[in-house]
Structure formats: C-alpha cells, structure tokens
Amino acid sequence: MKLMENKSLEERINKFLNGSQDENLIDDIKSRTEGNPELRQDLIDHLNANILLKREGEQSLKAQLTQQLLVEGAFPINQSSKSWLKWMLLIVGLGLITVLSIVLIPKESETGKQFAYQDPAVPNVRSIGDGSQLESWKESLHYFEQKDYVMALTELEQIKGDTVFLKRNGDNYKLVYGVSKMRQSEYEKAIVVLGEISTESPYYDQALWYQFLCAYYLGDKNNAMITFTKIEDYQNHYRANQSKQLLESLIW
Amino acid sequence: MTKISISSDEEIISHLKGGGNQFEQVVSYLNLTYAGLIGDMQSKTGLSRVQAIDAYTDAILKLIRQVRNNKFKGESKLSTYFYKIFYYTAVDISRKKTTHEVDLDLSRLSEREALVVDVLSHQPNLDKLKEKMNLLGFECKSILIDWAYGDFSMKEIAQRNNLKNDESARSMKYKCLKKLKTLMRSQ
User: Fold this and answer.
1) Closest-approach residue (CA) in chain A for B17
2) Which residues are CB-contacts of B123 (< 8 A; sequence separation ≥ 6)?
3) Mutate to test the interface with A, among B17, B28, B57, B58 (most CBs of A within 10 A)
C-alpha cells in the first residue's frame, strides 16, 4: 500500500503537519510503518517533500517581499532630510517630558528593580513561577536549546514586565538572557546582565563562566582577570581549568 | 500581491493561519505596513540598506512561522512582537556581519515536523534535496509550493497556475509530487 494511493493517510499526515491536535497520529504512523519498509520509505519521501517545499515556499516569499518593498518604494526614508523645525519641536518636546518625569515620577527603589532569567546547561526549569508568562518562558527555553537566540530573546522580552515571575525566576532568566546576548555577540550587554546574578544563586557559577567568556571574546584582559579571580575563589568551579587556559592564551 | 485593509490582530492571525489568497494578501499588507521600521532599525543597528531589508523580510517569515505554529500567544500586540523579532534579527546580522539566508536546517522545522522526522529516525539532507527541486520544472514547483506552503485551495491553485479547474490542479499536484519524490530518491 503506497502513501500516494492512500488518500486518507496522506490527508491525515498533512493535517498533522498543519497543526492538528491529534496526539495519536504519531503512534498511528509508527504502527503503520513497522514491518512495511515500502510504506515507511514512501512516508519519509512524503515528509521530506513537504519540508523541502515549505522551505522553498519561504525563500520564494522572501524574494517577493523584497521585490514588493523595492517596487512600492516602502523603503527607509532618510529622516535627516526632514525639516529642522520638526527636529526642534521634537527636542523641545523631549526636554519637557524629561523635566516632568523628574518632577512627577517617584524614583524607583533598588528593590523594585526587576530584570530578566535560566540555566543553559540544564534544560529543565529548576523553579517555575505560575505567572501568565509561563508559556513564553518555556518557549524561550525551547528556542535557547535549539540555539535560536533571536526567538529566545524575543520570547524573553515578553516576560520582562511580569514582576511576579521574575521575582521567583530572576536569576534563571538573567542567565538565559545573558547567554543569549553573548551568543548574539552583544558581550557588553551580556556582562551587565550576568553580573546581576546573585552570588547566592545556584546559577552564579555559570554566570561567572559566561562573564569570563564575554571578557575573553572582547579581548578585555583586565575584566577577564577579575572574573578569573572570582572563579578561582569559587570552590571547585566547573570551568576553573578551562578559564585558566583561556586566560593564559589571552595574556600571552 | 493585492492591497487589503485589516482592522485587528485577530483578523491578521486568522488570515495567516487560513492560507490561500487571504494569506498572500495579509502578508503583503504586513510587509508594507511595518516597512517604516526598516529605516529606524538601520539607524539603531548600523545595518546597510540591503542588510536591513534582509533582516526585515526574515523577520516577516519568522512572524508567519510563529503565528502558524500557534507560538504567538497574544501576550503583546502583533506589531510589538514583530518589532522584537525584527530587532533581534537585525542585531544578529549586524554582529555577525554576514549575509543572512533563510535557514534550511532542522532546527527551523515546526515542532510537529521535527517530531515526525525524529520518530522515523531520519534526517533529510535538505541541501541535496534542494538540488533535486531545481530539476522539477517551474510549473510543478509553483503548484507544489502553492499547495504545501501557501495552503491554497485546489481552485485557487488552478487560477494561479492557469489550469482548467480544481480537478486539473489536483491531478497536476499528484503528478508533480510523484515526480519530486522520484527525483528525491534518485542517487
């Protein structure tokens, strides 16, 4: 029995690929293909063809979108060509807002500051808040594991406002956020975020390692040295030897 | 691509998920509506004009993927969500300073596709398969992409590809898919 000749199976597979919630389908596919190498090969071909066509579809759409932008002239207008009056008004407006915000808005206390974070080395969430942003958090970890840092950071941004979540998972969040920034080569920003992880946190050892790596990538000998000292002070740090080797290669 | 007017995020999401002509129209609408961000992103990240467009169109594709795979939960406005994707894509490109292409690796597969591939313990060599795709011919390629990516109905596929009716479209799709699979199996 070939897949192409079995319309209902083909439709079911397509339905599944398009997001059907039928969780039994995988089992169904497995049981159908077991002991039937011809159907199994046919199914693999079908899946490959679908994947390939979707990718081709994306590339074709990307080309169309680019073309549309160029043809419709929906392209970046050089803001510097706008009149000086507009800029003056903008500057005056911003000045007024700044003055008003200093006068009217009370200063945020140190304890009120909440930032973003999770453990890149451990896929499971060690502690999860029950805030509404849990889905975004799980998604960000999923993307992080897939090394898709663009989408990981996008999802992490969704959580930024959830103070309840961040209160419980702040250090986790900072670690994932910081390492994602590092993977995007934003080393300076990564160092700042990772530096906010508490010394009491179970993620502190990793935070030190990634801060050290950032300094290393930046070629910043002083900061690398300072962070290395902290790594040495940390009892049995998991990257002590590696950081020592890297530091030596940086200095010499 | 035709211009349409859209009134809400829900409408956009529904069209993106629905596929077909409405999908194509809403993608075109998004492409033009958010285009004003390109200049802003250029000045923020220092990207060249070509790189900024590259990041922008990549971000549109990512947004489509997220919506179609039900990853966008509506926690923020769609435009805000898009801006974040665009920003991080642009940063990614500006830091790497390389030409960015749409990835063909397995990490880009939808969860379900990846799951099926995983279950079958099979990882396709997409680069090799891509070469085969070029041997398929323009008409077949267009019909199959309309079917697999655009989610066009058979009636719409017939109209777009100058075929007599939905039956001819169905029959052509069947033949083209068979041809593609044969090509994929060869060597």
Assistant:
1) A18
2) B106, B117
3) B57
Predicted confidence at residue A88, as pLDDT, reads 56
Question: CB of A111 within 8 A of CB of A126?
Answer: no
Contact call for A150 and B89, based on CB within 8 A? yes
Residue in chain B closest to A151 (alpha carbons) equals B85
**What burial letters (b/e) apply to B159-170, b meaning 16+ CB within 10 Å?**
ebbebeeeeebb
* A56 within domain boundaries: yes
Amino acid type, B169: A
Q: Report how far apart the first and last C-alpha atoms of chain A are (Å, whole number).
A: 67
- Looking at A9-18, B79-88, B142-151, which range is the least confident one? A9-18
Above 60 in pLDDT, residue A94? yes
In this structure, the answer to whether residues A197 and A131 fall within a common structural domain is: yes
pLDDT beyond 50 at A252: yes
Residue B145 has its nearest CB partner, among A19, A56, A139, at: A56
Cα separation, B50 vs A137, in Å, equals 33
Domain span at residue B139 reads: 134-185
Q: Flag if A77 and B39 touch (Cβ within 8 Å).
A: yes
Could you tell me if A66 and A120 lie in one domain? no
pTM over 0.90: no
Do residues B26 and B84 both lie within one domain? yes
Find the CATH number of the domain harbouring B18. Answer: 1.10.1740
Q: Which residues of A touch B93 (CB under 8 A)?
A: none
Query: What tokens appear for B45 in the block?
Result: 């990240």
Q: Which of B39, B130, B178 sits opposite A79 (nearest CB)?
A: B39
Q: Tell me what the mean pLDDT of segment A38-60 comes to.
A: 83
Please give the span between the terminal C-alpha atoms of chain B, in angstroms, as a whole number: 38
- Does B83 share its domain with B16? yes
Within this chain, do residues A142 and A53 fall inside the same structural domain, yes or no? Answer: no
- pLDDT over 70 (residue A83): no
Last residue in a domain, options A45, A72, A99: A72
Q: Does B91 lie in the same domain as B14?
A: yes
Arithmetic mean of pLDDT over chain B: 82
Average pLDDT over residues A134-139: 80
Task: Quote the CA–CA distance of A197 and A216 in Å, as a whole number.
Answer: 19
If you average pLDDT over residues B125-141, what whole number do you get?
Answer: 80
Enter the ipTM.
0.82
Q: Which of B36, B75, B149 sits opposite A158 (nearest CB)?
A: B75
Task: Looking at the structure, tell me whether residues B16 and B89 fall in a common domain.
Answer: yes
CA gap B150, B146 in Å, rounded: 5
Residues of B in contact with A133 (CB under 8 A): 75
